[in-house]
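Q: Given only this backbone (102 positions), what sequence would you predict?
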């Protein structure tokens, strides 16, 4: 008998298990916002992650601060792509807008 089939279920990915768990949890939005903050470095990469600080949500807006105007412009120009990737990562459209402040 296959160990993975011992309980009559196929193994699932962590992402799938997490999505199923979140469907059952009250306060899903707050959890998913926390997940967005956790996934920020993975989505934007080490360079951008290292110059961003004070990431927080105000409603559906993700607010963050950067060191200078050049970084503000860079992130602002790519904000729709970044928001889309973050939302895909958590399986929900919790990031409606990204506001970058220098």
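A: Predicted residues:
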């Amino acid at each position: 008998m296959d160990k993975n089939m011992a309980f009559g279920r196929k193994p699932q990915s962590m992402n799938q298990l997490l999505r199923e768990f979140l469907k059952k949890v009250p306060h899903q939005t707050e959890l998913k916002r926390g997940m967005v903050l956790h996934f920020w470095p993975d989505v934007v990469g080490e360079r951008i992650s290292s110059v961003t600080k004070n990431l927080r949500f105000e409603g559906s807006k993700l607010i963050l601060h950067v060191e200078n105007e050049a970084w503000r412009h860079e992130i602002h120009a790519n904000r729709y792509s970044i928001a889309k990737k973050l939302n895909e990562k958590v399986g929900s459209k919790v990031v409606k807008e990204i506001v970058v402040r220098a």
